[in-house]
Design a protein that fits this description.
It is a single chain. This protein is an all-alpha fold. The chain has 13 helices and no strands. α3 runs parallel beside α12, α5 crosses α7 and α8 runs antiparallel to α9. The radius of gyration is 21 Å and the shape is globular.
Length: 337
């Protein structure tokens, strides 16, 4: 695989989404916090993650020759090792603390989560992500040769139409319930990859930031009974990702700032570990400090733990596994007789 490149603004966008999930979960630890302090944007943040995942898969791979084995090994190495550690960490906490807020109980539940089929806490979003990685191979073939594989394009259109008609039903851990986020993101990523020119004026940067703010604040400012998950939010999330990727200097000033890029870099570990780390932090620090400073220090601890997880687990395991795959013994062709 060619070395993956990065768009700083997308790292920053990922950092915002990960932090939004963290702050959306704070009422778990401080139920009596004032209502104006409660941030309920977890769904919006995960929607951004899903659209961003589809976008990046297309951007990184759609112009390369299809190599499913290499691709799947790299995706596995990127996701699974730190995910498995997080599952086991939560399993241990569930034994140590009878009142842990998102417990994993029993061997069956632990095995189900290790097999990436679980739905407890933040782990629910991993199964559709993994399923999309498999689904993307079809998209990849279609992107590479749309004439030869036009049947794939037709099949995907039919699947999306039927899925939309059914209301994107099914458990949240199934790709069908979140398909438009990944699919629209992937189509936007493909468009971005093949475009010779992209919008880069100041309107692009302003629109990226304004739409991002609208997406996160809309449901709080304008209460609605409309279901969040669906084509509308998928389209908005995808447009945000696309506009952010265009990297106008106005949006870059925010999204490509060093703090947000750093958080984006450790965002997966932050997403996986913030609940158990804040739980432990508030428990231990709460014996010596009032609730508010204990919670604040626990939040900082979650970010520090995410950095440590990225440094010690996430990045090294990815490098080791992809290195082993790259250096695996190659089967030589049989000599001609």
């Amino acid at each position: 695989m060619a070395q993956e490149f990065r768009i700083a603004s997308l790292d920053g966008l990922r950092g915002i989404a990960a932090s939004a999930v963290v702050f959306s979960h704070l009422p778990f630890f401080y139920p009596s916090m004032h209502s104006w302090m409660k941030v309920s944007v977890g769904d919006e943040a995960v929607a951004i993650f899903f659209s961003l995942s589809g976008f990046l898969m297309s951007l990184l791979y759609s112009n390369r020759p299809v190599d499913a084995g290499n691709y799947l090994v790299h995706r596995f190495a990127r996701i699974y090792p730190v995910y498995a550690v997080a599952v086991l960490f939560v399993a241990v906490l569930s034994i140590a603390y009878a009142d842990y807020i998102q417990p994993l109980h029993g061997v069956g539940q632990i095995v189900r989560h290790l097999a990436m089929l679980g739905s407890t806490g933040v782990f629910w979003s991993i199964p559709p992500e993994i399923q999309f990685y498999l689904f993307f191979v079809l998209l990849w073939l279609w992107f590479q040769n749309p004439v030869r594989y036009q049947w794939i394009g037709v099949l995907i259109a039919v699947i999306l139409a039927v899925d939309a008609y059914m209301g994107f039903s099914g458990p949240g851990i199934l790709l069908t319930s979140k398909l438009p986020y990944f699919l629209l993101g992937a189509l936007a990523g493909r468009l971005f990859a093949i475009q010779k020119t992209r919008p880069d004026g100041p309107v692009t940067g302003i629109a990226a930031l304004a739409l991002l703010a609208f997406f996160f604040l809309c449901r709080s400012l304008i209460p609605t009974e409309t279901t969040f998950w669906g084509l509308t939010s998928a389209l908005i999330g995808t447009v945000i990702v696309y506009l952010a990727a265009c990297s106008n200097r106005i949006s870059e000033a925010v999204l490509a700032s060093r703090p947000l890029v750093f958080i984006g870099k450790i965002s997966f570990s932050l997403y996986l570990f913030h609940v158990p780390v804040i739980f432990i932090g508030t428990r231990l620090l709460g014996e010596f400090l009032p609730v508010e400073p204990a919670l604040l220090l626990s939040i900082l601890l979650a970010y520090g733990f995410a950095w440590a997880s990225y440094t010690v687990i996430e990045d090294p395991s990815r490098r080791i596994l992809t290195g082993l795959w790259k250096n695996r013994p190659q089967r030589l062709p049989a000599p001609a007789e």
